[in-house]
């Protein structure tokens, strides 16, 4: 099957006529091709977006709401097909794509379709002298670049607020997981999205993605991906004075205190460690446990990790499907090897899984729990982004905080305690954009989402996203 670019309302191959292989990670084989796009395709996409901008930015919020809501309806109507496509493309278990990825993609579009109806701007009254009011105007053509771990989920999380605010978009999904973005472009056609309002260019990050970032007419870039790529993007875009939103990597801590509801903490930690094979930027990968409950927590976590079924992503009973690519699985396994060299003990996992039959060449791996490592080692400092967690004991609240803040990342964190004073004290001091207390991944789309330190710059979600995708202009009227 050939995936096509979506440019000026049409589905087209790359200008160059060249293609890239697209793998099904569950079987380790090529199953489709994507356009190997470059600057010429991006040029066409940007010029279509520029042409569409005057109409889309002035058609009114009701019209934008109507079309976006129609797209959300179509995602809902095609949930099963989209979930199967997502699992085939990324290797993730169908239970994840059908209960998390696709419903959330629909919710993203619907949320921002309605959010724009409620979005206001400020006015400042200078008594007896003047009034200021602020216009929030769409920026123009914006670039949206998303990663492979939650493909349609994160793709729509960016383009929905951009479009709702009246911008025209040139977007690139990850070359590893392009399929649902392609299916989505067909739904946009069906919903009557005017040509050029959204353009989707497929291809390699350093080629197609780089061309989007470098193009002088993309005035803002919203990027989700790795910290190294984010740094490179910022170096390209900053001298061009582009607005930038960067959602980057994480190395998130879970702090488990002895006074918590341990059963709940362990059950949730299984999800926060191994959900989507640990390939969620919000997964907790450093688990700090207060000493009196360390052994109990460790033994039960290991027991439950061993019970997780790994294999055929299309079997509803499977908890963990394949990792996204052979190369990524090798990277994750190399960290397990590193952990051994650094003195860690692999309590469970650390090896590949062969489910047999047609899945024997897929990229499967056992959930892995490691203990006995110093906090400063690479395994505890670098993002692994796979089904691998480390355990470390602590004694005091101060020590736990120091450990939590001891990395260069600051995306999310989880605190397990029944002491509300301790929980709120730590929430204030922990260096992270998101703090979950006695829960994980409870998401309200209105809240600010993003990280500090090397986990990113700026916030997405709710009105934060609409503010990012608009330019404020103050107008002052003298009385
Ligand atoms: P990458 O940084 O490798 O890629 C992200 C996207 O950027 C892809 O579409 C990629 O294309 C593209 N890209 C790569 N190089 C360039 C370039 N020079 N110019 C423009 N675009 C480029 O990240 P991954 O896809 O590997 O995603 C995993 C990372 O994403 C992890 O670090 C994870 O923590 C982070 N992440 C952060 C989230 C957050 O909200 N903070 C949420 C989810 C993930 P291609 O795939 O073709 O290379």
| The CATH class of the largest domain | Alpha Beta
CATH superfamily of the largest domain: Aldehyde Dehydrogenase, Chain A, domain 1
Total strands: the figure is: 24
Judging by the overall fold, what is the CATH architecture of the largest domain?
Answer: 3-Layer(aba) Sandwich
Order the strands across the largest sheet as they lie in space.
Answer: 14-17-18-13-12-20-21
* Structural class by SSE content: alpha/beta
Q: How would you characterize the largest beta sheet?
A: 7 strands, mixed
Give a quick summary of the entry.
The chain is an alpha/beta fold.
SSE topology sketch:
Blueprint: E1 5-7, E2 10-12, E3 19-24, E4 29-35, H1 39-58, H2 61-77, H3 79-90, H4 94-118, E5 123-126, E6 130-138, E7 141-145, H5 151-164, E8 168-172, H6 179-191, E9 198-200, H7 205-214, E10 220-224, H8 227-237, E11 243-247, E12 252-256, H9 262-274, E13 284-290, H10 291-307, H11 326-341, E14 345-348, E15 352-353, E16 364-365, E17 368-371, H12 378-381, E18 388-394, H13 397-404, E19 409-410, E20 412-416, H14 420-429, E21 434-437, E22 452-453, E23 456-457, H15 462-468, E24 470-478
Helix pairs in contact: 1-7, 2-4, 2-6, 3-4, 4-5, 9-10
The structure holds NADPH dihydro-nicotinamide-adenine-dinucleotide phosphate.
NADPH dihydro-nicotinamide-adenine-dinucleotide phosphate is lined by residues 145-149, 154, 172, 174-176, 204-206, 209-210, 213, 224-226, 229, 232-233, 247-250, 281, 383, 385, 411, 451, 455-456.
